[in-house]
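Standup notes
- HV: blocked on the assembly model, inputs below
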Amino acid sequence: MSEDQKKKFTSDEEYQKATRRDFMKKLGIIGGAAVAGSAALVAGMKFEDKKGKDGYIRAVNDDNELITVPKSEIKYLKPDFTELQRRGREGLKGRKWVMVINLAKCRNARKCVEACQSAHHLRPYEYHINTLKMQDGKETAPYYMPKPCQHCDNPPCTAVCPVNATFKRQDGIVLIDNERCIGCRFCIAACPYSARMFHWEQPKNHEEYMHHEEEYEELMHHGKINEAAELKAKIDYDIELNVPQKKGTISKCLFSADRLREGKMPYCVSACPNGVFYFGDENEDAVTNGTTKETVRLSKLLRDNAGYRLLPELGTQPRVYYLPPKNRLFDFPEESILPEDGHHS
Amino acid sequence: MSASVDHFSPDKNKLNKIAEDILKPVGFSKSFMLWMGFLTMVFLICGYAYGIQLEKGLIVTGMRDFVSWGMYIANFVFFVAVSLVGMLISAVLGLIGYKWIKPIARIAEIVAVGFAMVAGLVIVVDMGRPDRVHHVFLYGRVQSPILWDVTVITTYMTISILLYFLPLIPDLAIAKGRMNNAPKWLVNLYEILSLKWNHSSKQFKILMKSMRILLILVVPTAFGIHTVTSWLFAATSRSGWDSTIFGPYFLTGAFVAGTAAVVILMFFYRNSFKLEKYLTDDHFDKMGKLLVLTALVYLYFNINEYLVPALKMKRVDALHLHALFAGHHAFLFWATQLGGLIIPMILMMFKPFRKPGVLTFLAVCVLIGAWFKRYIIVIPTMEHPNLPIQGVPEAFMVYSPTVIEVAVTLMTFVMSLMIITILSKVFPIIPIWEMAEEASHEGDAEASKTESLPAE
């Protein structure tokens, strides 16, 4: 560490810490000492925690300088409710998200369903995505079909919403704002894909949400602003995750808009063990398989495999494409899944 | 409300007699108190059921993700439908110039006011977040049929209240001097609401003009209210709702339900208020004919609505029609079509079945049938979405209403009945001045032609 750098630190204490960090960096470079390194890291962090409680906190400013600030002066810049709403309604610029579901690969593992339900705090029978057993006719082969929201480009649901609670973003995602939804369920009636669900009762994690709010009140009461701010992130409604869920409002598949913002794949796509899902950006003409991480041309994938969309005759223009269940790589029960009268439901 | 009246000079004796007859049942009698007490009790019990729904959410109803609209929405359609009769009788028949509707017009307006006022509440009962009703005004999207519905229902309600109140003003002026036994507050109320009416020809001119404007305005409004209500369904692509004739189909059905409701009320007033002289057999006969006419038109739309998809049997249409014609909903479907429409209609074509008692019985069948018909329109369609219903509890597949749902629905009826009861006991139910006009004119005619009044 140079003298220049040394001057920037306000106290010996700070200098000590900086050198320790420097040391740890070097330690990290010496790959062989990984165990010792992590032990030191843990010890160091504990030490820093203790320091922090003295009323000062260290941070890096915009000029990349390490500074200390009195804790009482700290304002966390985590996106608050207003910001979450603003960016959630705006969407990600320049993107056109698209999903491709390869029916030949789906063996009804339902990992997509589980991952989705856990991320969005849903009960086992509350679906943003569901895998359906399908058979188009007595003589045709049955197959499994994962069915998320189709994120239509001409969405019937947003057209009927009286309060603009459900809306289409510039990146193609159809979201639902459960802070605005009045629970009229017109969108459920309008959706031809049965993609929407309603919170008929308190949502699954209601107790937890209540607990967080109580805890928050308590922390604020005792003036523990930082801890409270930490908790606030859990309480604040994130429109891109639709959590906390709310009684008397609609919920639906969001294409995991929160994950896309972080540059990650949707929950269902990453969870699939069978390589069923491709996800990507239509503007880039590229989709990536959630299991194999292989990236392919969207247009070529759809062309080569005769990709299609559900109920195209309705003109809804879904953003979810399906690849037909040909050459399935697994056994499907031989017997027809259709009931005697030849109908599904 | 004939537009020809520009001065009020009835035969004094006849006016006195008519005013006496019509004002006799006005006021809070013992039976009124008992009836209102009963309604209040039922209201409180049902209100408690709604309290449970508020607390626990719509989980207490039979609705789930697939059948997400149930009895409440069917009930909403019914309320809007029944309220339309005000427009049919006062405006359509009134503007054509039929005089026999005069003693019935106010009853029709009471039905319109009673049902239109509660219709808005019926829809709130169905909302998951009734605490956010104001969002409709804060964030309202004019593209949504719900916004059109809110607008047009409030407009229709306002016009109906005016159509009820305006022809009441001269009556209040007539009544206030004759209410010797009435409580002081009622006389004061009449004094205030009669708006210094003194039967001058200038006042009549204004009244006639405003009535005429309102009667013309209420026609498109009433068409709008029920057409828009039908679009809540027709705007979706679901089998059973995806229909281009839903507007007229709902509208004509509404006239059937409303006419039946008016017949039932007429029968009640005639007997309980001793108004046989004003609500005569002839009136029932004519209302019976009107009911036949509306039922015929409605039947025509029914045939179109069910036969045309049945000829094609598209995949989901076939599922839907099968459930109606021979499946899960067959009993209710045929009961509403036969017992609630076709059989009463055929019977009413014969004069003996248009006698007050029999006609009222048939009207009750028609009205009950009309309620269940809305149920048949709303629920079966939701049970047959395009994609299969899988991986959900049994309750999600088939809808069956719960006790709480029935109680809350009952609550909305009680509210309507309360409004109707109060209006018919606080104010005269038959337009006194119009009857007096009529009687005087006919008295003149009698003098020259010696022809008996139909009212006697």
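- HV (later): unblocked. Confidence is low (pLDDT under 50) at residues 5-10, 341-345 of chain A. The longest helix of chain A spans residues 34-52.
- Next: hand off to the docking folks.
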